[in-house]
């Protein structure tokens, strides 16, 4: 294994805090902290050694710090048994964590203007990204949304780190009422964004892609597709992505992602295997005019 591949470690919990609607767990994990790059996640075992919850739960890394040799923080809301169990952890408990997993966000070579868009807990991976971009001299503008004020992620930090921070809520309890994508076009224009980075639910990423495309700028997305093994074996997390050769492949969000070029993800086909995906029942290597397949692809 490379020095920069994921490691599995049992890490002591340093702290568990409430942050609005979320819990923040910080673990002491120097080997993960030193390998980590923005966009990667950790896969956490839940329920204890005798638990029937066999599958690890994935969480984006929200922060790494040099404290105690290297700490790693992730934030989550309670959704089911795994996150409920995690919310009951206390400092000095041990957590079995694999990380950092997945491909990170690519960083621009030059100091460009970057709009960072996060829906709910999808804001998490954008904070280490914002720090990395700032270190490269990039301008950062945040657009963060949530169902209600307590679900908008780290608003105070966003204001501190970014040139501008725009907030939206579905219920209008904080910032602009409506989806996070509603003010994005204006933010792109006012901040002269060169690139958009986004994380959140698939419908939000699809709409973010439409806005970025209308403004003619590239998009990098981190998907939160449901995962089982988290190691590339089970194929439960596959997403249809168009390769440089124009061929759609079902790629694994856990190890081929979670970061993809937004314009390459076939958002409308997520959850299905498109007929023209490599290996799908209707797939042919080179569709020829007149064989029906080229007509379907065109139409
Ligand atoms: C790469 C990645 C990064 C993630 N980062 C974060 C994060 O930073 N903070 C956070 O709160 N959550 C994050 N999630 C989602 C988190 O992993 C799930 O909420 C968690 O696994 C639920 O476990 P559970 O046992 O509590 O609930 P389960 O019983 O497993 O599920 C409870 C409910 O949540 C739904 N659910 C489970 N996983 C997802 C998912 N990925 N997307 C949408 N719905 C889901 C289930 O369908 C079910 O309805 C991330 C997911 C991925 C794939
Ligand atoms: S979660 Fe098993 S292959 Fe991705």
UniProtKB/TrEMBL annotation:
Cofactors, names only: [2Fe-2S] cluster
PROSITE patterns on file: FAD_FR
Stored InterPro entries: Cyt_c3_hydrogenase_gsu, Dihydroorotate_DH_ele_sf, Dihydroorotate_DH_Fe-S-bd, FAD-bd_FR_type, FNR_nucleotide-bd, PyrK_electron_transfer, Riboflavin_synthase-like_b-brl
Domain FAD-binding FR-type, chain residue ranges per copy: 6-107
Pfam families: DHODB_Fe-S_bind (PF10418)
Signal peptide: none
Highest taxon, organism lineage: Bacteria
Keywords: 2Fe-2S, Electron transport, FAD, Flavoprotein, Iron, Iron-sulfur, Metal-binding, Transport
Similarity section: Belongs to the PyrK family.
Annotated protein name in UniProt: Dihydroorotate dehydrogenase electron transfer subunit
Organism of origin: Nocardiopsis suaedae
